[in-house]
UniProtKB/TrEMBL annotation:
This is Bactericidal permeability-increasing protein. GO terms for molecular function: lipid binding. It comes from the Eukaryota. It is found in: Secreted. Keywords: Antibiotic, Antimicrobial, Disulfide bond, Glycoprotein, Immunity, Innate immunity, Secreted, Signal. InterPro entries: Bactericidal_perm-incr_a/b_dom, BPI/LBP, BPI/LBP/Plunc, Lipid-bd_serum_glycop_C, Lipid-bd_serum_glycop_N. Residues 1-18 form the signal peptide. It comes from Cynoglossus semilaevis.
Amino acid sequence: MSLRVWLLLVVVVPVTLGTNPGVKVRLTQKGLEYGRQLGISSIQQKLRTIKVPDISGKQKVSPIGKVEYSLSNMNIVDVGLPKSAVTPVAGTGIKLSIGDAFIHLHGNWRVKYLRVIKDSGSFDLSVNALAISTSIAIHSDETGRPTVSSVSCEAHVGSVSVKFHGGASWLYNLFTNFIDKALRNTLEKQICPLVADAVSDMNPHLKTLNVIAKVDKYTEIEYSMVTSPTVSESSIDLSLKGEFYSIGKHQEAPFSPVAFFLPPQANNMLYFGISAYTPNTAAFAYNSAGALSLYITDDMIPQSSPIRLNTKTFGTFIPQIAKRYPGLMMKLLLQTIKTPNISFQPNNVTIQASATVTAYAIQPNTTLTPLFVLNLNTSVSGKMFVSEMRLAGAVTLNEMDLTLRTSYIGDFQVRSLDNILQLVLKVVVIPKLNVKLSQGYPLPAIGKMKLVNTQVQVLKDYMLVGTDVQFTG
Ligand SMILES: *[C@@H]1O[C@H](CO)[C@@H](O)[C@H](O)[C@H]1NC(C)=O
Ligand SMILES: *[C@@H]1O[C@H](CO)[C@@H](O)[C@H](O)[C@H]1NC(C)=O
Ligand SMILES: *[C@@H]1O[C@H](CO)[C@@H](O)[C@H](O)[C@H]1NC(C)=O
Ligand SMILES: *[C@@H]1O[C@H](CO)[C@@H](O)[C@H](O)[C@H]1NC(C)=O
């Protein structure tokens, strides 16, 4: 291998291994449009805080001579931003353009001339055809959350018109020039910093991204960004880690996310792509936390079932149980022996699990006497849905396969236990799993987000959640 190739591998391999996200979030043009509406009202409020300083001076006006003038108490009475557009700029960020904007002000004028003559009145001022254009960059902060900043901005005042109340008309001409120039300067200077403020005001909201979202007492999920956001002509994509950890034991899953690509759908504001990696890390975390085992006792089986967890029922299939342990209740211990595997195929989520089932007879003094251990391979199929800000699911049994691992009671036909174990899975284990799955796990969220028009599609190797968003405060 040449040195160059070797260097290339050294440089490329760690980067590509580390950066595949488990979860992708795509903000479409429709989502940006919603963001624009929120952003514009924030900019509008900021522009209302513009302070226009008093303007005063002396000016020679023939034939009167020196005129002292002052314009004061200029207050903004209205700001209108009727036209704006937001477009993603590939590789850079977002461009926000505001056109035809206007600012209406009201103020007082005062003059003094020929030593003793004083006059005063008020005026209404209208700044029109105001254009603002700003570029907004998106980055990842040190906590893996997105941050935005205004990186360039231009503001241009198209025209200024004034309507004076009171006074003589020759005065108007005197002021109009001064007002035009002074206002252009003061407005053009103040607008861009205020726009930059409005843009940075988004950061406290972005900081609410749940980079560590607690799921339950066993696990949490990490949603920090693994790379900077990528901007294309039509969308902004965030690449999030999407890895479950068992709480208190920050252990990396022994497998890595595989690259996946979101389809070019744009009907919704937001798309979440959740790769099979994410639920597989959940399975790994629950398994490492020891949360994937279950004791099954007779009281968990519905009263109406003729099959009971006792040596009488089991004795009808394995006579030596009834003979050696007559009249005892039984207990089963279900334990996974490796991390269950979750796979996504179009319209189908499948979970495959390998477990052992240990059957015990419960002695009158409560001692558990082991009878046999079975290997249980099972596969369940799931449907996924979104409830509130959580992705939830429900599964049904596909197939189940039993083999004998150890027997303490001599040989028996494992097949004969198929019906009992199927019943146990269907009426005890799967309903319990479904209660857990129906609680779901949190999706990445910012602030008080509500999802509407949400659809879930299961595709090959990932799941796509398309949704619109409403911020409720
Ligand atoms: C899960 O099973 C699929 C095939 O069914 C396999 O490609 C994948 O590697 C398995 N994943 C894990 C984490 O074992
Ligand atoms: C899902 O796929 C599994 C195997 O990949 C199959 O056994 C099962 O029947 C499928 N389920 C549905 C509902 O299509
Ligand atoms: C409980 O009863 C079983 C069966 O009679 C016996 O083998 C075992 O030693 C007893 N255990 C205790 C702790 O008494
Ligand atoms: C159960 O699955 C394990 C691995 O997951 C496999 O080695 C074994 O052969 C399977 N047993 C049956 C009975 O299918």
